[in-house]
Amino acid sequence: MNHKSLCHFTTLLLIVYGLLYFQSVSAAVNCSITATPNTNFGSVNVLSASPTDSTATLSYTCSHSDFFTAYSATLCFNIGPSLNSAINPRQMRAAGNTLNYQLYQDSARSMLWGSQYGTWQPVMMNISLPAAFFGTSSTSGTMTVYGRIPGNQTMAVPGGYSDSFSGPNAQMTINQRSAFWNPPPAPGTCGAPVATNFPFNVQASVTSQCFVNASPLNFGNVGLLTAGVSANTALAVQCSRMAPYNVGLSAGQNSGGNINARQMVLGVHNISYQLYQDAARTLVWGDTVGTNTVAGTGTGNTQNLSVYGAVPPQNTPPTGTYNDVIVVTVTY
């Protein structure tokens, strides 16, 4: 009897030893990640109050091939300071000029995407990988990076802007646990081991833009046109910083395309008038660039231009309201 009991006890020890052996030689989870594509905002109008949004995708895969061992892990997707700036605000550059932007964790663009090594937190994800049995146990997924360029950056000069992330500033870390057969609870905190890096770029093209607002030119109530009548109005022009522009005024809808024959009309009757660039009313304002337009360089802010109108002495037509329509064109 004693001899049989001893044999059974020895067999049990061998089984326990075998289980411990498979756990002790288990390998870590391996992960790979890519940023596809880079964050490209495309063309950006910085004079607009509306933001410009874009997205990028991080694709990851994690796997192991341990027969009896299951894993859980907390993955931390870190996006830290960039080549050009700290985290808040982030900046792209073009020949010394800057353009503010930001990267977020959510589509509402309210949660800034940061790094476990700084103030703003990274995106964290828990994964679980059962025992591989015969083969490989793996999981994969994607993370969306939400980008935004705020509007009203009127000091940004037109051009191609860029920024880049690499090394520890574009990095996924992994904090993992293992257990026999079934995955244990995930740690829920970022780990020190670096799983992989995912370098990527951020790009935007700031395009030249111009906006113009015109106020009516009103010569008021006049009697006999035995003497000249004058009046002024203003154009509000806003063009991108450092962008050259020309402002032209059409000949009006009653002149047959001739800027020297501008007319206000009432039915078959008309009043001749003219528009000038200067207060002395010597430079006629037309729409031929380089000849009779007004040139300027954008500052990013609104620039006011005066339009000087004159009605020369002429035969007085019947009473009534006379008008014309002028098209303002900004060439840039």
Short descriptors:
332 residues; mainly beta; Immunoglobulin-like; five-stranded antiparallel sheet; four-stranded antiparallel sheet; 21 strands; rod-shaped; disordered N terminus
Tell me the radius of gyration: 36 Å
Structure annotation, total helices: 1
Report, as a whole number of angstroms, the end-to-end distance.
105 Å
Q: Strand sequence of the main sheet, in spatial order?
A: 1-3-8-6-5
Low-pLDDT residue spans: 1-27
The shape, in one word, is rod-shaped
Helix-strand layout with pairing:
Blueprint: H1 2-24, E1 30-35, E2 39-44, E3 52-64, E4 69-79, E5 90-94, E6 97-104, E7 123-129, E8 137-149, E9 159-165, E10 170-180, E11 194-197, E12 200-206, E13 210-214, E14 229-239, E15 244-249, E16 263-266, E17 269-272, E18 274-276, E19 294-297, E20 302-311, E21 328-331
Parallel strand pairs: 2-12
Antiparallel strand pairs: 1-3, 3-8, 4-7, 4-10, 5-6, 6-8, 9-12, 10-11, 13-14, 14-20, 15-19, 15-21, 16-17, 18-20
Structure at a glance:
With about 325 residues, the chain is mainly β. The chain is built from one helix and 21 strands.
Note down, in words, how this protein is organized.
This protein is mostly beta strands and 332 residues long. The chain has two domains: 27-206; 210-331, Fimbrial-type adhesion domain (Immunoglobulin-like), CATH 2.60.40. The protein is built from one helix and 21 strands. It starts with a helix and ends with a strand.
